[in-house]
Each structure stands twice: as structure tokens, then as C-alpha cells.
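One thing: can you check what follows?
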Amino acid sequence: MMSHKKRDLWIVLVLYLISFGIGVLTFILFDSYTIMLRLLFADLAAMLFIYAVSLIIKNASLYDPYWSVYPPVMLTLAFISLNKGLTLPYFLLLFSIYFWAIRLTLNWIKGWHGFTEVDWRYLMIRDTAPKLYFLTNFLAIQLFPTVIVFAQILIGLKILELSATLNFVFVIGFLMVIIAAVIQYIADEQMRAFRNENKESKKCIDQGLWRISRHPNYFGEITVWWGLYVMYLSIVQKLDVYILAPISMTLLFVFISIPMMEKKILRTRPEYEIYQKQVSMIIPFMRKSEEKDIYQENN
């Protein structure tokens, strides 16, 4: 008999395939517009479908894999539409984004328990104003992160539009994305192993990458998008408005995601405050002291 998680994963797969179809159809229908607008319309159309279904099934966590599955879809659409040959720089760009996306999506699959659960952040948003949840769900949970990620997609689009040539800086950007995705994998696996070993306790992880960064997985995520920007920078060789894309992603984690997470941890683990003082928030760095190691991020 199929487990409820496998059943729910199949449902998610079908729903996302439908959303892909909606996105591609939207992209085709708006062929008189610029590629940037066509990608935006396609992204929003697909997101609106996921949003509508999330209301029907009463679970906003249906949106969770959207973050990782849509960037490669959007960039593939752009690449095909631009009708450019698969040069080495373009291959490295697409490979790095697919590498990151597949890794992150697989991590979501491992940690997801099915439609029986809803992300605690979504529940917090819902409980703050239950009658307005249809709106806060749309704006805060789905539209806002979609726009933030779309800003990163624009960087990839610009790389595809320009005559990208392979140079040292481009390779550095590529390696930043790959290494950042590996860092995310290691951090997530360390957290998963620690939780499995401490199911009955509220101990806090203080080992591996978590000894030198309170959020090494978020460090990896932020670095992915800075790596993409470095690839773009290697082509234009000047700072421009597109630097706002990785900056916006950084600000999202520093001022929204991490504060929400740490506020939740402190409610049940007041001693986490000591860990905050010892360990860098994001960038891996030497600890300020070597006091008793009793901390775990619980996300």
C-alpha cells in the first residue's frame, strides 16, 4: 500500500506539471512581448495556479518546492527562446542552476511529510489574521518570494542574452554556485543526522558547519545567487542595477527569515541566546568562545 507521503508527492508532481504547462503556454501566448515580461507572466501564471490549489487543499506548503523548481524552468524557456547555441559558458550557467535546484528539491522531498503538515511560518501568518489569510497567503507566502527569486532569474536571463565568454571571473562565479550548493547539502545532512540521533531531546546542534555558522544552509543559498551575479559581472565588468537582485536575497534572509527562525528557537530554548553570541549568523567564522556545545537550530 502506498504511503501517504508518496501519494502526496505524486499529487504535488502532477500539480506542478500542470503549472509548468500553464507557465509555458503563457510564455508562448505573450510572444509579442520581451522575453523578460514573458518570463514574468509565465512565472506569475504558474504561481497563481499553485496559490489557487493551495487554497482548495488548505495547505500553503504546496508552494514550498516552487522556490527551487522554477528557476531552471524559466532559464530553459529563455535559452530555447533566444535560440543560441549551447556554448561552454551557457552550459556552465544552466548546469549550476540545475545542480542547485535538484539538490534543494531533493532536500525538500526528504524533509517533507506530506499534506498532513504545514510550515510553522505559514501557520503563524494565518493565526495573526485568520480572516485575511487568503490575502496574506498570496502576498507574503507566495508572491513575495516569487518576485525575489524572479529577480535572480533576471540575472541568468541577462547572461543568456549577452555574448558570454569564458573567463576567470565567470569560472569563479560558477564555482561559487556549485560549492554553495554542496555547503547546503552538507549542512542539511548534518542537521538531519543530528535530529535523528536526538529525537527525544531538545538538544541543540553544535557540530560540523553549525559550529561556525548559525545558518550554514542559508549561507549556501545566499552564495548561490551571488555566484550567479559574479558570472554576470564577468561579462558586463561594471556594477549596475542588477546587483539589487542578490542584495534583495541577502536582505530577505538577514532581516526576515533568520529573525523569524531565531525568535521561534528562543521561545523554547532560551539558552540559544548564548549560541547567538558565540557564532556568526551566516558567514562561517571562528567562534567567539568555546563554551558548552548545546545548541541546535530547529527549522
